[in-house]
């Protein structure tokens, strides 16, 4: 019986051992599987982190490349900006030099036409031709002024000097300028001003230029015998001026760009209205600088056009004193002309000789200064752009040698910017005339000091 119990106990023990043998591997496997699962998750996280790191590195590389491109682009942009500014400076310098060189031959042409007009033996036909020459000289000078102004405005070199002024006076000046051309083409120019005087704050010279360009443009694109009207009204705090014509009109596709630089209206094959396409651009910019606006209207080609200009109004200034009448000097003057262009010198001399003055000439600055220091002259007419010793140095040395005294000094130059005039005044010039010189203006200045 004892053996049976022992045998039964051993069986239970073996059975228990077998159960434990079965149970223990299952727990271990589960734990192992869980551990493996954790490792797999960790590996997955590491792989994800690796992918994120690689993506981050790629992003950093892309950003680095983009930054390098940005730096290069900034450098290139600055380089292009510098090149553009340099090109703009060269363009302005070239335009100024071009205007100077083109103005030089206009002097003898203008003076020659004046000599023909004043010649006692001139036939009516010669007189007519001389007037045509004068008008064309003035037209070419106006084109040069527009071209230079367009360049100066684009580079911010134009300043305006505002003052209260009567708009009627500005318009009178503009009408006087364009009237010869209007009459030449048999056109009718009608000016309608309000009964009450209207004023604005502006630059007298620049506003006269605005109205001259608008009226001249209307005459240019209006046929012979056509009509041009200028209406001025007061509208609240604004002055409104409308320039209208019954000329060629403006095409719808051109109208939005009519104030852009180098934009021109239609040309006919029969006439060369032409121009440089800069006048209206100059007008818009000058009007804007005065705080005003301008717009163009036209029903279409062949139906005329209108330009409506609005300027801020202001109280009228006091009426100016009547201008003093200027005329040629009653007594002859001793005049020295310093000019390296032989044609210009000869025509200037002939013109002043005809008016009774005693005129001498010098062809360069050194000879001119020597003549001034050794002789006695009432007036010196001196070209600024002389070779070697220029006109500024001539007059500066003359004033220094004579303690600021000496003859009236009249400077002639193809450059007309404010800084050019300032340098001439600083050197000692009394007057500064831009070529081509108006003969009457020159004649009025040729007088001894009082």
TrEMBL record:
CDD domains to which the protein is assigned, alphabetical: HATPase (cd00075), HisKA (cd00082), REC_2_DhkD-like (cd17580)
Residues spanning the signal sequence: none
Taxonomic superkingdom: Bacteria
Ranges of Polar residues composition bias in the record: 8-20
Coiled-coil regions listed in the entry: 36-73
Domain Response regulatory: 334-450
Chain residue ranges for the region called Disordered: 1-22
All residue ranges annotated as the Histidine kinase domain in the record: 97-315
Residues modified to 4-aspartylphosphate: 383
Keywords, in A-Z order: ATP-binding, Coiled coil, Nucleotide-binding, Phosphoprotein
Reaction(s) catalysed by this chain's protein: ATP + protein L-histidine = ADP + protein N-phospho-L-histidine
An example molecular function term from Gene Ontology annotations: ATP binding
Entry EC no(s): 2.7.13.3
Name under which the protein is recorded: histidine kinase
Organism: Massilia niabensis
Organism ancestry: Bacteria, Pseudomonadati, Pseudomonadota, Betaproteobacteria, Burkholderiales
């Amino acid at each position: 019986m004892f053996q049976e119990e022992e045998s039964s106990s051993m069986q239970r023990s073996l059975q228990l051992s077998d159960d434990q043998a079965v149970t223990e591997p299952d727990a271990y496997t589960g734990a192992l599987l869980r551990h493996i699962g954790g490792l797999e998750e960790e590996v997955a996280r590491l792989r994800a982190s690796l992918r994120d790191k690689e993506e981050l590195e790629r992003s950093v590389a892309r950003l680095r490349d983009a930054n390098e491109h940005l730096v290069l682009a900034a450098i290139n942009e600055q380089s292009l900006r510098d090149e553009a500014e340099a090109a703009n400076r060269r363009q302005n310098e070239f335009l100024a030099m071009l205007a100077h060189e083109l103005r030089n031959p206009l002097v003898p042409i203008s003076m020659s036409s004046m000599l023909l007009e004043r010649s006692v033996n001139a036939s009516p036909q010669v007189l007519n031709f001389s007037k045509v020459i004068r008008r064309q000289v003035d037209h070419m000078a106006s084109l040069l002024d527009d071209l230079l102004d367009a360049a100066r405005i684009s580079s911010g070199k134009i300043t305006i000097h505002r003052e209260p002024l009567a708009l009627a006076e500005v318009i009178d000046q503009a009408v006087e300028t364009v009237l010869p051309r209007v009459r030449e083409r048999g056109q009718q120019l009608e000016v309608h001003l309000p009964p009450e005087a209207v004023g604005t704050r502006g630059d007298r010279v620049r506003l006269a230029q605005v109205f001259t360009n608008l009226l001249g443009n209307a005459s240019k694109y209006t046929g012979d015998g056509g009509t041009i009207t200028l209406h001025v009204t007061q509208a609240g705090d604004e002055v409104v001026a409308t320039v209208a014509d019954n000329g060629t009109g403006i095409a719808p596709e051109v109208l939005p760009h009519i104030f852009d630089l180098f934009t021109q209206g239609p040309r006919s094959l029969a006439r060369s209205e032409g121009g440089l396409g800069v006048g209206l651009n100059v007008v818009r910019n000058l009007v804007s600088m005065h705080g005003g606006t301008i717009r163009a209207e036209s029903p279409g080609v062949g139906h005329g056009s209108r330009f409506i200009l609005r300027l801020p109004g202001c109280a009228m200034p006091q009426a100016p004193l009547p201008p003093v009448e200027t005329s040629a000097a009653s007594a002859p003057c001793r005049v020295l002309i310093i000019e390296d262009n032989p044609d210009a010198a000869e025509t200037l001399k002939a013109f002043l000789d005809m008016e009774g003055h005693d005129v001498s000439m010098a062809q360069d600055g050194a000879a001119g200064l020597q003549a001034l220091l050794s002789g006695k002259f009432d007036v010196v007419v001196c070209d600024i752009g002389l070779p070697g010793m220029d006109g500024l140095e001539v007059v500066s040395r003359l004033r220094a040698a004579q303690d600021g005294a000496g003859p009236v000094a009249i400077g002639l130059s193809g450059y007309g910017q404010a800084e050019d005039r300032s340098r001439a005044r600083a050197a000692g010039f009394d007057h500064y005339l831009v070529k081509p010189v108006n003969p009457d203006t020159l004649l009025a200045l040729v007088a001894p000091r009082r």
